[in-house]
Amino acid sequence: MPNSIATSLRLQDRVVLLANQKRSWCEIGLLIVRVENEQAWRNDAQTFTEWLVGFSAQLGLGQSNLWRYRASVLYGLELLGIDLSCPDAQITAALSKTSADILEVLSKISRVAPPAMSARLAQDVLEQKVSRTDLREIWNVFKSGLPNQGTAKPTSQARNRATKRSGKANRLEWVSLLSALLRVGPGWIRPGKPISAHKLINDIAWTGADGAAMAIDAVVIVRWADTNDVTMHGILQRASISAFIANPQIARYCDDVWLLSDTHTLDGGLPDEIGAICIDPEGVTVVKKASASGNESKVACLAKFLLGKML
Fold it and tell me: Which among 107, 105, 15 is positioned nearest to 61, based on CA atoms?
């Protein structure tokens, strides 16, 4: 006998069961997947979508929620290596350890992140080491690095396609590093010191005190629990070093500035104002210490600007 509530219960019985009892997202999502997989919707609707619209109304849940539950169950089954032949109780017990929202965001990240990073994040999700907020932050960093999907300009056909592919790869490599830094957290800045809050903001541009245009690849903002002070830490990619050297005043707007890479070896010398950190599966290693900016007024100026963007 097939192990399926979709065949063991009539559709109306299942609707009544779900409508009259508190059910988890994974129970609802699994039922939807079963109904679709076994085409049980054909008894009540012309299409699966039509059936889901009716099912949504009967449950009193939005259609978007049901689609998300369905997608999250399918992704969760793939992630856990479980198929639909397993008992419902086993599947829901495994999926109930996380949420539909977390699986939805994780699936988006997995489509653009390097496989090693996706696997690490998936393991963190399964071990409940990462929150929905953490994943949202990581996804926002990745999303900022995705190419514009709008209509291409006519002149784009004249561009060098190899260069475009290289630029896209470099951009995704960079946001992968930023995402890894975000996941690890800023504890490397003041080892052992308690942190009450932190935020990573990508692609920062502002107007300096003298009216000059300023820009930096990313900034990490940290509020320290023991002193309640806020510090600002600029993050550079290797391609931005020459621009930084040409405009070193940028460093005055941060407590310190760091080159972020995935290697412990520096190819060349760095200015005193730039430190170097390496991100790898073990965490963050400080390869070269950065000198402090020594300009609290300008740090406060940028902090005020960024906090205004966040509010």
Answer: 15
* Closest by CA position to 62, among listed 95, 100, 92, 21: 100
Cα separation, 75 vs 308, whole angstroms: 37
Alpha carbons 232 and 234: distance in angstroms, whole number: 7
Q: What is d(CA 311, CA 307) in angstroms, rounded to the nearest whole number?
A: 6
Structure tokens given for 238: 């290797």
Comparing C-alpha atoms, which of 103, 171, 184, 181 is closest to residue 142?
171
CA distance 146 to 104: 18
Name the one residue in this structure whose structure tokens are 């995402």.
179
> pTM score > 0.90 for this model?
no
Each residue of 244-301: pLDDT tens digit?
A: 888 877 777 888 899 998 887 775 678 888 889 998 877 898 888 887 766 767 766 6
